[in-house]
């Protein structure tokens, strides 16, 4: 999925609302929270194909499909998950047979159609990329620097892995997100999309070398 974060300028959390950034440890509760955040990052696309997108995403995460739980970073405030960032590396593939077993034939076809539209709307992942496929912050935590902090953690992971850049796709209409990514250091490198579906994106990149 592309990245579509509606984010205000980063602010500092109060001491009472200390934020913790940490790896995703799947539990029924955390899977539900993460699934909803990922859905919120691209409501338009999910709503075209599924009546209960949260449940579909939760199933995929539970089976380690679509999004690798090891490549999801969370931001929490107390017991509440307030932000999630999912990333991909080149070479990761999903087994179609595993998808059918997880979703069933009908939802597999829906997911495949959704994935096709997404792939036609955005550019390919390159060698040396850490691609941020989803970044979302809960409505009540926006404007607190959550997205900025998750981006910092993604950059740290990429540097530790010896990768060359962070990349992401963002809707051209999402001005608050564009402002955040520019502030973080991302620059627009290209654009792509499907005009007739109103899905136009900028590919943004942050060089690490």
From TrEMBL:
<keyword id="KW-0808">Transferase</keyword>
<dbReference type="Pfam" id="PF00583">
    <property type="entry name" value="Acetyltransf_1"/>
</dbReference>
<dbReference type="InterPro" id="IPR000182">
    <property type="entry name" value="GNAT_dom"/>
</dbReference>
<dbReference type="InterPro" id="IPR016181">
    <property type="entry name" value="Acyl_CoA_acyltransferase"/>
</dbReference>
<keyword id="KW-0012">Acyltransferase</keyword>
<dbReference type="GO" id="GO:0016747">
    <property type="term" value="F:acyltransferase activity, transferring groups other than amino-acyl groups"/>
</dbReference>
<dbReference type="InterPro" id="IPR051556">
    <property type="entry name" value="N-term/lysine_N-AcTrnsfr"/>
</dbReference>
<protein>
    <submittedName>
        <fullName>GNAT family N-acetyltransferase</fullName>
    </submittedName>
</protein>
<feature type="domain" description="N-acetyltransferase">
    <location>
        <begin position="19"/>
        <end position="209"/>
    </location>
</feature>
């Amino acid at each position: 999925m592309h990245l579509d974060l509606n984010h205000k300028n980063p602010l500092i959390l109060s001491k009472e609302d200390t934020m913790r950034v940490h790896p995703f440890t799947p539990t029924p509760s955390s899977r539900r929270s993460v699934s909803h955040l990922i859905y919120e990052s691209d409501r338009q696309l999910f709503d075209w194909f599924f009546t209960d997108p949260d449940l579909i995403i939760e199933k995929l995460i539970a089976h380690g499909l679509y999004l690798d739980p090891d490549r999801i970073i969370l931001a929490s405030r107390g017991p509440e998950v307030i932000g999630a960032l999912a990333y991909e590396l080149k070479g990761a593939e999903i087994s179609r047979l595993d998808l059918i077993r997880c979703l069933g034939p009908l939802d597999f076809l829906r997911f495949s159609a959704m994935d096709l539209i997404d792939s036609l709307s955005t550019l390919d992942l390159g060698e040396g990329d850490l691609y941020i496929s989803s970044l979302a912050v809960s409505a009540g935590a926006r404007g607190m620097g959550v997205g900025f902090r998750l981006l910092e953690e993604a950059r740290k992971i990429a540097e530790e892995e010896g990768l060359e850049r962070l990349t992401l796709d963002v809707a051209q209409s999402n001005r608050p997100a564009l402002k955040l990514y520019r502030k973080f250091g991302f620059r627009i490198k290209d654009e792509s999309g499907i005009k007739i579906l109103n899905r136009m994106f900028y590919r943004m990149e942050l060089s690490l070398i």
